[in-house]
């Protein structure tokens, strides 16, 4: 998805929306937290590469190798690039397993857990990335976005609402659809 232009990272002017987290979430649910973390690390790597070699105005928050004007990426760029994405490959597994255990014996014991895993994986990525940007790059990011540092958290909440919530809804729907099909397939294969 990262290699197909405008598929994995959808350009939105000064930033990008992403759908690469969806295979990471599904991989987490189906393969477990270790393989999910590996997929999340690959997601982080593709983000680093995209922001280094095809940058936007705010790419410095994801790449220590990119700077624009007075805004420079640094070690925190790598933390932002990798930590939320790795957690995107871990958290959905535990959300899915935990809710499924609570619903054991219920008729649709996989529907709600898959939806919740999709929502959790997507939101952990968006909320952590945006809050870490605020924490580590507040002034530089505000300058790149053309807002004051005092107004920045409102902008960040806007990004979470405008980009993050629809991404989470899409992730929940696709995690449910693909997850149900994969779970059905693995059950048939086991029998």
UniProtKB/TrEMBL annotation:
It comes from the Bacteria. Keywords: Membrane, Transmembrane, Transmembrane helix. It holds the Pfam family ECF_trnsprt. InterPro entries: ECF_trnsprt_substrate-spec. GO terms for molecular function: transmembrane transporter activity. The chain crosses the membrane at residues 6-26, 38-63, 75-99, 111-137, 152-179. This is ECF transporter S component. The lineage of its organism: Bacteria, Bacillati, Bacillota, Clostridia, Eubacteriales.
């Amino acid at each position: 998805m990262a290699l197909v232009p405008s598929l994995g990272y959808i350009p939105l002017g000064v930033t990008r929306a992403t759908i690469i987290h969806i295979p990471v979430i599904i991989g987490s649910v189906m393969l477990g937290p270790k393989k999910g973390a590996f997929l999340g690390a690959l997601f982080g790597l593709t983000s680093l590469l995209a922001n280094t070699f095809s940058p936007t105005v705010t790419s410095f928050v994801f790449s220590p190798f990119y700077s624009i004007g007075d805004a420079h990426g640094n070690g925190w760029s790598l933390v932002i690039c990798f930590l939320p994405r790795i957690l995107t490959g871990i958290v959905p597994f535990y959300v899915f397993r935990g809710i499924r255990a609570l619903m054991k014996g219920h008729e649709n014991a996989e529907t709600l857990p898959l939806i919740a895993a999709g929502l959790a994986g997507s939101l952990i990525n968006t909320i952590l990335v945006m809050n870490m940007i605020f924490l580590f790059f507040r002034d530089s990011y505000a300058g790149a976005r053309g807002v004051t540092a005092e107004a920045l958290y409102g902008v960040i909440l806007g990004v979470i609402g405008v980009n993050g919530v629809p991404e989470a809804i899409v992730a929940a729907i696709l995690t449910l659809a693909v997850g149900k099909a994969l779970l059905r397939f693995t059950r048939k294969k086991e029998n």
